[in-house]
Amino acid sequence: MKVSEAMTRNVQLAAPGQSIRDVAKIMAESDTGFVPVGDKDRLVGMITDRDIAVRGVAAGKGPDTPVSDVMTDDVKYCYEDEELDHVAKNMGEIKVHRLPVMNRDKRLVGVLAIGDVAQSDRKAATAALTGSSRPSGPHNQSMA
């Protein structure tokens, strides 16, 4: 099974200059803890509810802080034409619960979450969860 058969296609993007308050509202409205960040037609980062809490609020930043100040810019992603079981295993190895899905022109076409994998392939979901749920050691997000 290909990633394109399991992924979620309707993805809302945040802009780097948007406030973390705006993105938190997007997360609340769409019941998600993750929003890809795009600049023009390129994916430049991701912001999670954890980024807002740890890199934003805990660091003393206010609700008008731009997304670019707290987002993760080292974006891990997969391609829509990759095999789902391979990508799920990789998600476990790199300890992520969701990945942006790109086409071969590196344009965002969707998001693959553990829940999407679980609905499509329970064995692949088990592999992803087993890896991503192992303790990873000290917290690695910088508060700088």
Explain what you see.
- The structure is a single chain.
- The chain is built from five helices and five strands, in the order H-E-E-H-E-H-E-E-H-H.
- Helix 3 runs parallel beside helix 5 (122-132) and helix 4 (114-120) packs antiparallel against helix 5.
- The protein has a single domain (3-132), classed as CBS-domain (Roll).
- The protein is globular.
- A hairpin with a 5-residue loop joins strand 4 and strand 5.
- Strands 3-4-5 form a three-stranded mixed beta sheet. Strands 1-2 form a two-stranded antiparallel ribbon.
- It has 144 residues and is an alpha+beta fold.
Q: Major sheet: size, sense and barrel closure?
A: 3 strands, mixed
Number of strands: 5
The low-confidence parts are 138-144
How are the strands of the largest sheet arranged? Answer: 3-4-5
How many domain modules?
1
CATH architecture: Roll
Computed over alpha carbons, the radius of gyration is 15 Å
* H-E string: HEEHEHEEHH
* Protein structure class: alpha+beta
CATH topology: CBS-domain
